[in-house]
């Protein structure tokens, strides 16, 4: 199959670039989605560790659950399909907080948001753009760097996304996580998630989940999981090898020039001046 032409890959909705794999009809009708009280929403900007988090959560439950693809991916029949699924549904999304179907908020659904140092997120996204035929071509890191800072990439500005969720970080139904904390002390974060989701779990089981959720373990399992639709969190690729690239903190240092770093920090400091969490995201 030949690749779709560049102009067919992206369209705008409410000022934000979406891939055409999110139909405009679906985006327009998202607000009619009938969320259930026991739905769990996983919020993230792309390339922040969504698959890692989803892997941990699916392993935490010992009752049947369904991990869906992001709510905004697909055509308008998506909402109907989700409707037919039995509970419990774990629903990922790359939408910013203000665009979430309002039922998730009205019904106080539990939401877990994962964030990542935006410099590493940009680098991860660059490689994803380079490898993924469903995303526009980017020729160089320099070109992508500017697009990222301008928010001219799928899901829009990292800054706007983060800030929209940060505003709700103290809501009782929201757990706010950082990729870097998962790297530093995964058992602690798994425990935190289990408490938030009211799941009883022994320390031995936590260790077991952490072992199975290591980067190498998840990467090595890609072949098995490639054929299992329940593992397809990202609708932009059915090739999980694109997801598990390097899995490290600080890869930006291998990409950013000193000049790019200065520019990034200047924009970061300006955009994040009201953020109480900015310090957690810079190193
Ligand atoms: P890199 O491209 O920096 O390697 P998402 O799931 O939101 O698309 O995020 C993908 C990023 O999370 C990739 O980052 C990927 O390698 C990293 N990742 C996935 N699983 C991981 C794991 N078990 N441990 C650490 N990083 C992981």
UniProtKB/TrEMBL annotation:
Q: Is Transferase included in the keywords of this UniProt record?
A: yes
Q: Give start-end ranges for the coiled-coil region(s).
A: none
Q: Which residues form the Sulfotransferase domain?
A: 38-275
Superkingdom of the source species: Eukaryota
Tell whether Transferase is among the UniProt keywords.
yes
| Keyword terms of this UniProt record | Transferase
UniProt cross-references to InterPro entries, sorted A to Z: P-loop_NTPase, Sulfotransferase_dom
| Top-level enzyme category | transferase
Give GO terms: molecular function aspect only. Answer: sulfotransferase activity
The text of the family note is: Belongs to the sulfotransferase 1 family.
Give the protein's recorded name.
Sulfotransferase
Organism, per UniProt? Aythya fuligula (Tufted duck)
Gene symbol? LOC116485665
